[in-house]
């Protein structure tokens, strides 16, 4: 375990900031809002209104729409998605390490290597369990 | 009034605390009221994220970094929990063909 | 710390040995690892200054070692008694055992933590494997339902706990429990943030130990989960949660005793009544055990209401005695193996298999607190310690013990009855395995002679 104090030294966020800092955000929000509302309101009014059966039908890459969009997907996708979430989030621990790479020296490197070792153990377990085999 | 204070002093601790509390309350209410298990799961995540916000705000207030590391742990544990929760949901869906928690009433007495 | 490392490696090795598909090998390796962990803990007891014995977040003091040793014993017993069930799914045997060991790891972290980081991580390591294990019978909707219920309440409780920790951190500026204690001692004016945090943490604990009014999940979860997991939840999870509870409240919140004591008094009384009164009308065995466990949580809370120097040891002894009785009963339940888990199915057990019947009767009487069984001494210690400070509470507790004796004795009578003649209830075969007999033997010996531990104590 790494000592927490120097661990996040550089991650320190400054919450107290001036009003001026927010002006660009406010401006951008206004522009975005105006654009979205503007297009939604004016586009139907400006354009001609034509409708036919062919035009109202759903358009799917030029191919005839077939079946329901909510069809069951193979559970294999789901397993991989879940594993992805799990392994993806663990990367969060590399971020503070990367920031404090120099300060932590050998101790930090050892800690991270142990961490990656366990990580790999988990991955090997998943592989051996056959969770990533597509054809079964 | 609130906006005026905010404009004068920048965003102070209270606003973060209030925002976190509101988010947390929404999460709690969602868990208690909603019937869809997936939405309940999302509300639990919302609760945890409210906590994260509160932690970071307090961390800055106290000028120590501990809480920010705690936030990392919360995030990772939340991911692990979500993984397990989703897997349980898939399992239950296979057995019962629904994710409505109102339907899970076989265990009673 | 060495013990934790051994335990972690044991769990990993167990998981990987599972690929060989040799259940006995898995079992022996895992039990060997658990015994090694216990040995490491005992070494630490005699040589506390071992260089691997502590680091910032985890400190294996006497308290932690006692609680951990008991948790290890319970885990071994549960692995033994559930082995038959684990073995029935060959490709998952090692996973079941490995998850139980990971959960045990969490329990040990939870009784040895020094700061909120380790406390929180311990809690999660304890809980997450149990969410999975509760749903271990994959094709059984009841098992998955129990798993989901446990998961949702557990995750909700985690959220509340974290919110409490965040407020507490806001008030004190630290996560270390001794620094929090120091802060409260020196503070002239305690910020209201701390009280908010305390209340949230308290509610989360009540969720985890299953005390009223946050008990509603536990009967459902106990009922639906596979029997060994129910035993594990009742014995080990409760031990870990209570260990953390008393540790946190006697160290970090010791200065706020006047604030949380009245609340806990009320909750202890409520929990005892809810548990005992609901247990009376149960017809399913695991539900009966669940409500009985709620009642026992009520008795255990008394140790925290009246804090004396002996509180932690009394609580430890009480949970020790309670765990043996519950594990024995869960094992008997597995032997009876009724599909609908009716208490009626126990009819004729005393005649069909006298030894199992005897153990079941002893375990029920131990839960009821009949002398000279271990359960009696557990209750006696708690009540004797509290009677001078809070006689009214003890009067209520004694009344509740009376109610408890009623439904325990009713079950004892069912066990001793002749086998039913009506064809409606099919007779169970009462098949036992050698491992289950060993578990029953150990439990019955502990319950009969566990009072002797008081001499040492």
From TrEMBL, chain B:
<comment type="subunit">
    <text>NDH-1 is composed of 14 different subunits. Subunits NuoA, H, J, K, L, M, N constitute the membrane sector of the complex.</text>
</comment>
<keyword id="KW-1278">Translocase</keyword>
<dbReference type="GO" id="GO:0005886">
    <property type="term" value="C:plasma membrane"/>
</dbReference>
<feature type="transmembrane region" description="Helical">
    <location>
        <begin position="15"/>
        <end position="33"/>
    </location>
</feature>
<keyword id="KW-0472">Membrane</keyword>
<comment type="similarity">
    <text>Belongs to the complex I subunit 4L family.</text>
</comment>
<keyword id="KW-0812">Transmembrane</keyword>
<comment type="function">
    <text>NDH-1 shuttles electrons from NADH, via FMN and iron-sulfur (Fe-S) centers, to quinones in the respiratory chain. The immediate electron acceptor for the enzyme in this species is believed to be ubiquinone. Couples the redox reaction to proton translocation (for every two electrons transferred, four hydrogen ions are translocated across the cytoplasmic membrane), and thus conserves the redox energy in a proton gradient.</text>
</comment>
<protein>
    <recommendedName>
        <fullName>NADH-quinone oxidoreductase subunit K</fullName>
        <ecNumber>7.1.1.-</ecNumber>
    </recommendedName>
</protein>
<feature type="transmembrane region" description="Helical">
    <location>
        <begin position="70"/>
        <end position="93"/>
    </location>
</feature>
<keyword id="KW-1133">Transmembrane helix</keyword>
<feature type="transmembrane region" description="Helical">
    <location>
        <begin position="38"/>
        <end position="58"/>
    </location>
</feature>
<dbReference type="GO" id="GO:0042773">
    <property type="term" value="P:ATP synthesis coupled electron transport"/>
</dbReference>
<dbReference type="GO" id="GO:0030964">
    <property type="term" value="C:NADH dehydrogenase complex"/>
</dbReference>
<keyword id="KW-0520">NAD</keyword>
<keyword id="KW-0560">Oxidoreductase</keyword>
<dbReference type="GO" id="GO:0048038">
    <property type="term" value="F:quinone binding"/>
</dbReference>
<keyword id="KW-1003">Cell membrane</keyword>
<dbReference type="GO" id="GO:0050136">
    <property type="term" value="F:NADH dehydrogenase (quinone) (non-electrogenic) activity"/>
</dbReference>
<keyword id="KW-0813">Transport</keyword>
<dbReference type="InterPro" id="IPR039428">
    <property type="entry name" value="NUOK/Mnh_C1-like"/>
</dbReference>
<dbReference type="Pfam" id="PF00420">
    <property type="entry name" value="Oxidored_q2"/>
</dbReference>
From TrEMBL, chain C:
<feature type="transmembrane region" description="Helical">
    <location>
        <begin position="394"/>
        <end position="416"/>
    </location>
</feature>
<feature type="transmembrane region" description="Helical">
    <location>
        <begin position="190"/>
        <end position="211"/>
    </location>
</feature>
<dbReference type="GO" id="GO:0048038">
    <property type="term" value="F:quinone binding"/>
</dbReference>
<comment type="function">
    <text>NDH-1 shuttles electrons from NADH, via FMN and iron-sulfur (Fe-S) centers, to quinones in the respiratory chain. The immediate electron acceptor for the enzyme in this species is believed to be a menaquinone. Couples the redox reaction to proton translocation (for every two electrons transferred, four hydrogen ions are translocated across the cytoplasmic membrane), and thus conserves the redox energy in a proton gradient.</text>
</comment>
<feature type="transmembrane region" description="Helical">
    <location>
        <begin position="62"/>
        <end position="81"/>
    </location>
</feature>
<protein>
    <recommendedName>
        <fullName>NADH-quinone oxidoreductase subunit N</fullName>
        <ecNumber>7.1.1.-</ecNumber>
    </recommendedName>
</protein>
<feature type="transmembrane region" description="Helical">
    <location>
        <begin position="315"/>
        <end position="335"/>
    </location>
</feature>
<dbReference type="InterPro" id="IPR010096">
    <property type="entry name" value="NADH-Q_OxRdtase_suN/2"/>
</dbReference>
<dbReference type="GO" id="GO:0050136">
    <property type="term" value="F:NADH dehydrogenase (quinone) (non-electrogenic) activity"/>
</dbReference>
<feature type="transmembrane region" description="Helical">
    <location>
        <begin position="289"/>
        <end position="309"/>
    </location>
</feature>
<comment type="subunit">
    <text>NDH-1 is composed of 14 different subunits. Subunits NuoA, H, J, K, L, M, N constitute the membrane sector of the complex.</text>
</comment>
<feature type="transmembrane region" description="Helical">
    <location>
        <begin position="117"/>
        <end position="136"/>
    </location>
</feature>
<feature type="transmembrane region" description="Helical">
    <location>
        <begin position="93"/>
        <end position="111"/>
    </location>
</feature>
<dbReference type="GO" id="GO:0005886">
    <property type="term" value="C:plasma membrane"/>
</dbReference>
<feature type="transmembrane region" description="Helical">
    <location>
        <begin position="232"/>
        <end position="253"/>
    </location>
</feature>
<feature type="domain" description="NADH:quinone oxidoreductase/Mrp antiporter transmembrane">
    <location>
        <begin position="115"/>
        <end position="403"/>
    </location>
</feature>
<dbReference type="InterPro" id="IPR001750">
    <property type="entry name" value="ND/Mrp_TM"/>
</dbReference>
<keyword id="KW-1133">Transmembrane helix</keyword>
<feature type="transmembrane region" description="Helical">
    <location>
        <begin position="437"/>
        <end position="456"/>
    </location>
</feature>
<comment type="similarity">
    <text>Belongs to the complex I subunit 2 family.</text>
</comment>
<dbReference type="GO" id="GO:0012505">
    <property type="term" value="C:endomembrane system"/>
</dbReference>
<dbReference type="GO" id="GO:0008137">
    <property type="term" value="F:NADH dehydrogenase (ubiquinone) activity"/>
</dbReference>
